[in-house]
Design brief:
The strands form three sheets. Strands 2-1-3-4-5 form a five-stranded parallel β-sheet, sandwiched between helices. Helix 2 packs parallel to helix 3 and helix 6 crosses helix 8. It has nine helices and twelve strands. The chain is of the alpha/beta class. The longest helix has 14 residues, at about 105-120. It binds calcium ion. Calcium ion (CA) binds next to loops. Calcium ion binds near residues 9, 51 and 53.
């Protein structure tokens, strides 16, 4: 059983590594998110212990990037007790379980063993709204059963809108979840992408799926309208 620990606090990382090795695991450590992501993509680990606050790429981003590339390695996320981040968000980005810092080693091992027994992460369910369907695992999208080619960014936007069908999603929310965290360009880029999506989805079908809510954002119309 080989485990990757992605944690920038060097002392905590080496404490976890030593402890897990005593339990018979092989353990690699990455001290930043980017390195962690690259290692996780290159090596088939049995599980990841992933901190959230990491240099270069935070834990949420690492997790989302792995899932986006259909990597279903079980992920145990470490969350801070009084952080602005929460467990729900960890699970939402594709983590399988979480542990709040500070944690006891015994609890960490118990969580990891349970996680590995359960096996890889459950593949996310196919999203369906009206006659749209999006498979987050395969990164495929179809309108009335006809496959429509979307770029990765278009796919992320559709996934976000479909997960929250009927709700208004602001441009900022779209920007934050569909663009790289380091993106500092014009938020109006979202409008450009929504236009691309309408060209591929609304216009050929001759109806409105993506509605503009003036001054607020966008809404995926979840019933015939
Ligand atoms: Ca950290």
């Amino acid at each position: 059983m080989r485990i990757l620990v992605v944690e920038d606090e060097v002392e905590l990382a080496s404490y976890v590594k030593r402890g897990l090795e005593r339990e018979g695991f092989a353990v690699d450590v990455a001290n930043d998110g980017q390195t962690g992501l690259e290692m996780a993509m290159a090596t088939p680990y049995d599980a990841l212990v992933l901190d959230i606050m990491l240099p270069k790429l935070n834990g949420y981003k690492v997790c989302a990037a792995l899932r986006e590339q259909s990597n279903w390695v079980p992920i145990l996320m470490l969350t801070a007790k009084e952080g602005e981040y929460d467990e729900a968000e960890a699970l939402d980005t594709g983590a399988d379980d979480y542990l709040t810092k500070p944690f006891s080693f015994v609890v960490l091992v118990a969580h990891l063993r349970a996680l590995m027994r359960r096996g890889g992460a459950a593949r996310p369910a196919v999203l369906e709204v009206r006659d749209l369907s999006l498979d987050p695992a395969r990164r495929t999208f179809a309108v009335a059963g006809e496959a429509v080619d979307l770029t990765p960014t278009e796919m992320s936007i559709m996934e976000l809108l479909m997960r929250h069908a009927g709700d208004v999603i602001s441009k900022i929310e779209i920007l934050e979840s569909c663009w790289d965290w380091a993106y500092e360009g014009d938020p109006n880029i979202v409008e450009v992408y929504v236009r691309y999506l309408r060209k591929k989805i609304d216009i050929p079908a001759g109806r409105t799926y993506i509605e503009t809510v003036r001054g607020s954002g966008y809404r995926l119309v979840d019933e015939h309208g």
